[in-house]
Amino acid sequence: MTEDVVAELRADLEELAEVVRRLPAEQLELRPAEPQGWTARQVLAHLADFELMAAVRVRTVLSVDRPALAWYGQEEFTDRFSALETAEEALERFAVNRRATLRVVAALAPADLERVGVHPQRGEEPLRRTLEMLARHDRAHLDQLVRAARAIGG
Question: Structure pTM?
């Protein structure tokens, strides 16, 4: 599983960078009609925040027995902090943290995937599930950005 997760998370990083390159600068600030309503720049800031939280969770589960996992309000984070950086800065923050996460995940032993953290809403969560969730989360937002790029012919 580890090799698959590493490959998927690495591919997500590469695809995200490519999708952002295809979006014109003005498109990064347009608010879509989707229910979430975030601009592409806000989605990038959210991905960077989520990656940082995931990195902390992964490292905590690997170094503490059954730790309480950090929770954050993603809407509140995005509303409060996304305006502090450009899309390019958010993408770079995501990329730096993702590359660090990839180094950690690539070094995992099979038993590491069964280590457990305790999420305040989801309860016990093996590291395997955290990594699977990270990949699903990437895919959902990548699909959102791909749809935005297609809508403008990108």
Answer: 0.91
